[in-house]
Write a structure and sequence with these properties.
It comes from Chryseobacterium aquaticum. With 276 residues, the chain is mainly alpha-helical. It has three domains: 60 residues, no CATH class; 40 residues; 112 residues, no CATH class. Helices cover 68% and strands 1% of the residues. The protein is built from eleven helices and two strands, in the order ααββααααααααα. It has a two-stranded antiparallel ribbon. Strand 1 and strand 2 form a beta hairpin. The protein is rod-shaped.
């Protein structure tokens, strides 16, 4: 029973202490001087310097005023009261300037983020065109270069006969082989195919890749033109040989050797001696 009474008395004491502390807190928060200070600290009013002064026969009688704002107050307090308006939330206050600066920084952050997103997207796009894994999906490749460079892939790497070299006949192929033209054409073909393979398999910027496509296409056109010229020239020489072979009157005797000037004069005199 005694323990129960002790517990009740303890709870009553705590309840009374909490109530008194709450009342004191409310009284302190509602102090007019503190409220005036709060108004000065925000935006409402620069003034209301509580506690107010009281005079009796010209003598200051309010001890609180004298120690806060008056003669006995610290110099910092007097400078604060007599100084300029330093409310942080006034229209041109420090806090409003900070809010404005923060808003400006937020707008700048949005711009930077937008620029960063744009750079990121551009980087992703550039990487998509940079890597050789996506070259087959490029629109310019699909629309033009795939069709124009297709003959390079269809042409054999090491042609062995006149059909693979796209020549007219076997005799033309043998003539070009004998003169060493086939070997030189094979070297040019190897360079063209190597450049084409590099443009398709290496990682590089999109612009550089299409420059390599164009250079490869130019080299291929020159190669085809040169091959066609050699083909036509060799065919023409073969036709002349056939004409000379079929018309023996135009051919020289197999044992013919040029004569000297003395022999020529002697032959002419023997040929015309019966006429004179």
């Amino acid at each position: 029973m005694k323990n129960l009474l002790k517990k009740i008395s303890l709870f009553q004491f705590l309840f009374i202490a909490i109530s008194l502390f709450g009342q004191l807190s409310v009284k302190r928060l509602n102090d007019p001087s503190i409220v005036a200070q709060h108004k000065r600290m925000v935006f409402q009013d620069w003034g209301d310097w509580r506690p107010y002064p009281k005079y009796f026969l010209g003598i200051q009688t309010n001890f609180a005023y004298a120690t806060v704002w008056g003669l006995w107050s610290p110099k910092t307090n007097r400078d604060y009261k007599n100084g300029e308006d330093i409310r942080p939330l006034k229209p041109t206050g420090v806090q409003n300037q900070r809010f404005a600066q923060l808003k400006f920084q937020e707008e700048e952050a949005k711009k930077i983020k937008a620029a960063s997103d744009t750079i990121h997207k551009r980087s992703v796009q550039d990487f998509a065109h940079w890597t050789s894994a996506t070259v087959d999906a490029d629109p310019l490749w699909l629309l033009y270069y795939k069709r124009m460079l297709k003959p390079i892939t269809e042409f054999p790497d090491t042609p062995q006969n006149f059909i693979e070299w796209r020549l007219k006949d076997q005799q033309t192929f043998e003539t070009l082989s004998t003169t060493g033209t086939i070997k030189r054409l094979q070297e040019e073909l190897d360079l063209i195919k190597e450049k084409y393979s590099m443009s398709r398999s290496m990682d590089m910027p999109r612009g550089k890749r299409f420059i390599m496509y164009h250079q490869t296409l130019i080299k291929w056109r020159k190669f085809v033109t040169e091959l066609r010229k050699h083909n036509n020239k060799t065919t023409l020489l073969t036709d002349y040989k056939n004409i000379l072979k079929n018309h023996s009157n135009y051919a020289l005797p197999p044992a013919w050797t040029p004569a000297s000037d003395q022999q020529i004069v002697h032959n002419m005199m023997n040929h015309y001696k019966h006429r004179f």
